[in-house]
Task: structure prediction
Amino acid sequence: MGHASPPWRAVTITLMLELDERVVVRDAPQYNAALVGREDATESLSTFWVRFDAEPTPFLAGQYMTIGVFVEGEAGAPPRIVQRAYSVASPPAVAGSDGYEMYVRLVEGGLFTPLLWRLPLGHRMRMIGPKGKFTLEPDDDRTHLYISSGTGNAPFVAMMRQLLVDGAPRRTIFLNGVSYERDLGYRELIEGWERDGGYPVTFIPTVSRPTAPENEGWTGRTGRVESIVAPVLDELSLTPADTIAYICGNPDMIIAAEETLLARGFREEQVKKELYWPKGKEPGGPGGTE
Result:
């Protein structure tokens, strides 16, 4: 496994959170949900569970929800909502009991994530949605090639979990690219499925900074995830005749991965995409930088 984060990193994040003087409104009439769970993977990667006060809103695996809180206004201004959209990593089947699971990276200087990191369990929130068309094709028996960068793996985890609930898992090749080994979210879950046959998945992670001290001991693939798409296609004999691709992450990665697939004969309708934010625009999609 990867090395622990350097101490200066944790100190930097602690100071950043302490310097954020915005006051979160504890209760507001617009709040309709609460933060019911949190699990930290690193100092800047955490999983959060948010649950509606009332009955859950139905959604499809792959869609995203928007969560937010109100902060007090300045100079007598009314409170304002600060919110972000995140892909749901949990299956729809558990929305009523466990809530909606979201895998989030803390962004230094971000608008929303520093607030989220400061919230205690039980804090009231506003949640709306779902939105998004990044969902599975029904009754598709082709091999599913999932290509993700960073926290872009979340919607794929939801898809696989729901297919297990439905009793209809699909053969899957799961690529996830990160900078450091420690950032491989859901690794234990996916490798467990692969190891014991709980899901027909082949997990292929890659790190883009193999010479960094944090990656000492890493023996897996290296390079950005888009750079390993072509080799994986060749090694596993994946062709447009029997494969459908789903890509989620930053726009540069998606563009590069899609170009590789199209050059290999994949049709546009065989390449489904979820951009964290449109290229050339401010981050705004699910899981974007805020």
Observations:
- The helical segments are 7-19, 113-118, 154-166, 187-196, 229-235, 251-263.
- DSSP finds six helices and twelve strands in the chain.
- The longest helix spans residues 7-19.
- The mean pLDDT is 92.
